[in-house]
L-glutamate gamma-semialdehyde dehydrogenase
Amino acid sequence: MSFRLTYATMYNPPEAMHERFEAALARVSAGLGVRHDLFIDGADRDAALYSDRRAPFDNALHLGSFAQASEADADVAMRAAQAAYPAWRATPVAERARLIRRVGDLLEERVYDIAAALVLEVGKNRMEALGEAQETVDFFHHYADDFESHAGYAHVLPDDPIDGVASHNASVMRPHGVWVVIAPFNFPLALAGGPTAAALVTGNTVVLKGASDTPWAARLLADCIRDAGLPPGVFNCLSGSGRETGEALAQHPLTAGITFTGSVAVGRHLMRQMAGGAWPRPCIAEMGGKNPCIVTERANLDDAAAGIVRSAYGMSGQKCSALSRLYVHDSVADALIERLRQQIAAIRLGDPRLREHWMGPVMNATAYGNYRQYIDELQSGGATLLAGGHRLGEGASGPVPLARGYFVEPTLAEVPPDHPLWQQEMFLPILTLHRYRDRDEAMRLANDTTMGLTAGFYGGADEVAWFHEHIEAGVTYANRPQGATTGAWPGYQPFGGWKGSGSTGKAIASFYYLAQYLREQSRTVVE
Ligand SMILES: NC(=O)c1ccc[n+]([C@@H]2O[C@H](COP(=O)([O-])OP(=O)(O)OC[C@H]3O[C@@H](n4cnc5c(N)ncnc54)[C@H](O)[C@@H]3O)[C@@H](O)[C@H]2O)c1
Ligand SMILES: N[C@@H](CCC=O)C(=O)O
């Protein structure tokens, strides 16, 4: 079987993948420092303000200057999308699907260059970056296939049972209008591209706001959409802050729906905004996680240790799916901790451009500051640090001194169960551990959170049904060494949160996802 890249297979890629990535990294690095404009109505558009972005692993590396869209720019984009909407909505499904697949094909042709940009911009390692770029390709293909397989969700219903009258009935699904997509910093391509593909294939037009900290990815997506030949105005791309650009889009009267991916606080704010106004409008909000893993006395501890380390520290803990809370049966806790400490000690951390570095920096000065503060809070709250706990500001690693980036150690801490940080998403490589004696008590603690995105389990095969029955999470993994709580892939694992982690209860790339971009029209016609 040939190699297929997913987050579950990325740990042992073929050598050719590294060679192609190295070539792309050299190519992309040679072109750094240029200006990136807005993309509105099929053309580049200047902004009044540009903001310089630097690599999170090296503050001396200037990536480029990115347009900061003003309220007026947002208005121009919304009007362009509104003007393009009637013709796009009327475009036959097969043609829309063809164009969406074409975007996927172009993304795939550029997958190495895009992955190189993601390494530079987000600081994730090359396999995570290649994974994100490939995942975006798959979203475009998946949603085109899915919409066609549902035959556009059009259904003919029985005629009314009225004697002597032909009264024909049908249910059709119709798009909403201009759909706003707002992306997070950690998956700035996939979580811009996925919702964009879904909104477009269902007949909406789109205004995308790229993530504030990582706007380059969205602009690379815009280039593929432009080159695929979508009509002007059907897709528009802005970069800018949440406070100015994001708010301008969310408050715009032409906004018919939003897909937001990001923090709980902003997501709930947007949900409230979309519920207000002249009428309530849909808001698909994919939000944070505080993801647990339960390890029972019957777990395979080698599998558990591998999956836990990958999910707690991969991408420096900056995944919504990252493992942050670990509940281990007392009888196996010491043995598991020993394995975890060994694996943590073996993590290679540093400049993410280098193949040997599995863990890169955290995103910015705020995250770097939060790390120090959380470690202090853990220690003053009675926690025992079992591994890590330091920021790395000294020494050298590869071509760049670590002091020029935001590097922190992967951290494992045994923490009293009433510590407030069990409740708060830290979004950092910090894993808290609790030893339990009673399995039901472990489940109660695992569910003791306002969030419910992903959850992991390691135990006996006959305990898995108990885990599934009781855990309050939208995405679950049992006995998976590839990742305790991370690594969903379109077409394999639908991805969405329960409770405060998601507003809809319907997962990304699930059977039910595309219907959320449509509104039903019931049609009765009497002959
Ligand atoms: N559930 C998921 O699928 C998923 C996936 C990835 C990330 N996340 C979550 O995202 C968070 C990390 O990402 P982040 O730091 O970029 O999140 P964030 O909420 O700070 O920002 C997300 C996006 O919202 C924009 N924004 C901020 N304030 C806004 C406002 N008032 N109006 C409109 N837009 C606004 C930002 O500019 C950014 O583009 C974590 O909580 C993580 O768990 C969730
Ligand atoms: N889809 C990714 C997480 C995306 C959120 O940050 C995973 O499943 O690990």
The longest strand covers residues 58-68. Residues 126-149 form the longest helix (24 residues). The chain has 14 helices and 26 strands. Residues 182-187, 191, 209, 211-212, 241-243, 246-247, 250, 261-263, 266, 269-270, 286-289, 320, 425, 427, 453, 497, 501 surround nicotinamide-adenine-dinucleotide (ligand 1) (CB under 6 Å).
